[in-house]
Amino acid sequence: MKKILLSLIAFLPMLTLSAHTTENSDKEETTPTAVSAPLTVNQPLMAENTLAEQNPLSATATEVRSPKKHRNFLPTRHRIDREINKIKFAYKGEVMFGMTASYGTLSSDDTDFMLILDNLNADGTIATIRPFVGYFYRDNHCLGFRFGYNHVSGNIDNARFDFGEINDIDGDIPYLDLTSNNYSFGIFHRSYAGLDPKGRFGLFAELELAVVTGKTDFAYDSGDERHRYKSDNVQLKLAFNPGVAVYLYPNVCATLSFGLGGLQYTNVSMKDPVTGVKIGSRKASKMKFKLNIAAINIGMTIHLWNKKKE
User: What are the φ/ψ torsions at residue 75 (nearest 5 degrees)?
Assistant: First the structure.
C-alpha cells in the first residue's frame, strides 16, 4: 500500500505538467482564429445592415450606387444599312444638264384594224421634249427643274366598220381631227443606285411634281357641216418615272426612263372658236400606276463637277 501511494505521488507532477502543456497548445490554436481577419470583413456589412434597418433610403442609395447589380442593359436599335449608296454614281456638288425626248407615230397601214374597218385613213403623232437642270445636294441624290413641250395630233378620215352579219353591227366614222400643244413646268427629285464598282451603270427612281397647261383644237363632221372647238387644258400631276443610266463618257450619261403613272387632276374648259364663249367644262382626277407606252423617254445628261472624281 505504501508502495502504491509513493508511486502516485511521484507520477502526479508529470500529469500536472502534461495537462498544462495541452492547455497552452489549445490556447495558441484558438487565439489566431478568434482575432483573425473576419472582423475587418464583417464590420462594414454589419454597419450597412444596421443603417438599412434604421434608414431604408440609405439602403436604396447604396443599392443604386452598385453599377453591376442594378445597371439596365437595354437593347439598342441599329439602322440596317442596305448599302444602296455604297457605289457612287454621281457626286455631291455636281450640276446636271440634260434632255429627254420621245416620238411616236400611228398609222392605219401598220395595224390590223382593216379586218373590221373599211376605207380607213388614220394617222397620229405624239412628240415630247423635256430639257432639265439639276443639282446633286449629296451623293446620288439630285433636285432639279424641268420644262416640257408635248405635241399630239391625229385624224380619222371617213371610215366604215362592219362586225359581220351575225353581230349585225355596222356604221360610219365621221371625219375627226385633233391637235393639242401643252407646256409643262415642274420640279423633280432623282435618286441613283450604282450597279458596278466603277459606277458606270446605274438605276434611278424619279418623282416629279408638274403643272401642264395648253390648248386643244378639235374638229368633226356632222352631216355636211364641220364643227370646230377649242379648249384650255390645265393639269396637275405627281408622276413616278424610274429608269436606267449608263456613262458613255466620263461626264456624258445616256438614260432610258419609263412612266409608271401617279396622281393626276385635269380641268378642261371648252370654248367656241368664233365667239370665245365658254360652252362647257370637265374636271377629272385619277390615280393609276401602270406602264405608259407614250411616256417612254430616251435622254442624255451632262454632269459637271468642280473637282475630279476619285
Answer: -70, 130
